[in-house]
NmrA-like domain-containing protein (Riccia fluitans), 309 residues
Amino acid sequence: MAHSKSKVLIIGATGYIGKYLVNASVKLGHPTFVLLRSLTTSDPPKAELVKSFQESGVTLLKGDVNDYESLVAALRQVDVVISTVSGPAALSQVKILDAAKEAGTIKRFIPSEFGHDVDRLEIDFKDMEGLFGTKRTVRREIEKSGIPYTFVISGGFAGYFVANLANDNVTSPPRDKVTIWGDGTAKAILNTEEDIATYTIKSVDDPRVENKFLHIRPKENIISQGELVALWEKKIGTTLEKTVVSKEELRKIIEETPFPANVIHAIRYSAFVKGDLTSFELNANDVEAAELYPDVQYTTVSAYLDQFL
Ligand SMILES: NC(=O)c1ccc[n+]([C@@H]2O[C@H](COP(=O)([O-])OP(=O)(O)OC[C@H]3O[C@@H](n4cnc5c(N)ncnc54)[C@H](OP(=O)(O)O)[C@@H]3O)[C@@H](O)[C@H]2O)c1
């Protein structure tokens, strides 16, 4: 059967955000491929995930970002490549570019971003070079490569920052006490993983997003930590006991906590204390997802919190 929609390869499909992209790609009708480092695994949740991919018609390919031949062979089968790799594999994404040139089939590359606009923030802590700095490096290599791209600036994941009201060691919003970072007024952007995946997949065949920055900032999801906590307090009819960690105290925590445990604090500092997610206006190279795709019924932060009532 001929497909009018691009064939999409996801590298990092078994990761936290990768699986949402696989599901969205299938749901939106794209022939979907995943590159797996191993086709067999003794890790039960991962095995279950891979089985669910297969059951939904996803093509499994064996390969590794660091194995050039496997990359070229995988890229030759598709039109679009989305990377959701993290950590040590992040810099090796530049190898995808060489492989894409050799494959000659790739119409869009979406690298592993899914967070801040890393060109529009100051890297305050040397330990953040590995995350923000590497993403910058990968961007520059992609821009030089001539391979069409989209950089997805998603803001914070709801599962990481809404479900716990941006607190540590809880998996649902606290009902008694909460820590507030800084004065709690800096505006962040918080989106569900499903919506981030949907907007990303909607963009892959969209010429308006080619060589652009896709910002996912629906108006109702631009919210400070103070507003997030107040929203939850209203829903549960309780005022939470608040411990305020000042900007200076949080800086000290980041400096004194060993890497990589300090990274989550540094991300909170950037998003919820400095307001790096919202501290700039969009310009001609930027497109906003909710405006571009008004048909997507995105989940608001408020609706997301309702699942915990
Ligand atoms: N905005 C936010 O709130 C937020 C939160 C978290 C993450 N993020 C961003 O989202 C992106 C993805 O992070 P994540 O947490 O979803 O990642 P993750 O869960 O650590 O998953 C990484 C994935 O990459 C795969 N991988 C690693 N090395 C590979 C290699 N050499 N070749 C092929 N595949 C390889 C892993 O495969 P295996 O299964 O084989 O290990 C896994 O599927 C990152 O850019 C991160 O910064 C944003």
User: Anything to note?
Assistant: The longest helix spans residues 129-145. The CA atoms of residues 97 and 145 lie 7 Å apart. Residues 8-156+192-218+281-294 form a domain with the Rossmann fold fold (CATH 3.40.50.720).
